[in-house]
Amino acid sequence: DSLQQPGRLVDGTPLDYAYGLFIDRYRSVRRVSHSGGWAGYHAMSMRFPDQRMAVYLTCNAGDANTQTLAEGVADAVLGSTLGPSDAELLRDSLRTPARQVVAPLEGLWWDATVGRLLRVTLSDSVATLGGALGGRQRRLMQLPDGRFIQVPVTPRAPRYRTDRATGQLLMESPSGPGVRLTRVPEAETLTAARLA
Question: Do 151 and 166 form a contact (C-beta atoms < 8 A)?
Fold first, then answer.
């Protein structure tokens, strides 16, 4: 019971994280879950207590999105007992922004909280976000309030917006405080003359 008791911030803001498990709702049904990963492996434990159904995944691929895979299994098994997906609810709200709107997002961003480098690339007016050294790329779509969200949409998908005052990219979490990403310059292209 304690593992499933959600916490609160000191100001009273509720969290979806308990004493070791995430407690939230997926497509209107109660979910208890936690992912894991290490050196080329990813795992997911996802339970739907009211439906007496659970999905456990282990993958020996560093780029495996175990949350999306487990949710796909839940969609197939639970079917009509689930409500509409977040993607369906947001479908009419999401839009492809104009190029000038997403242009400030383009480039390399440093996340000092976990020591990772992210890259936002732009093709026409479509922005994608991913690791600077490769891996999964996620399309960014614009919400009605001007922020951006990763697609496919998940309950814990962060929202992104630029802070015009600082030039930082704000990654806002639905369940807690956000993270400020700092723009970093692209690496210099080393020509033969420059190497010499």
Answer: no
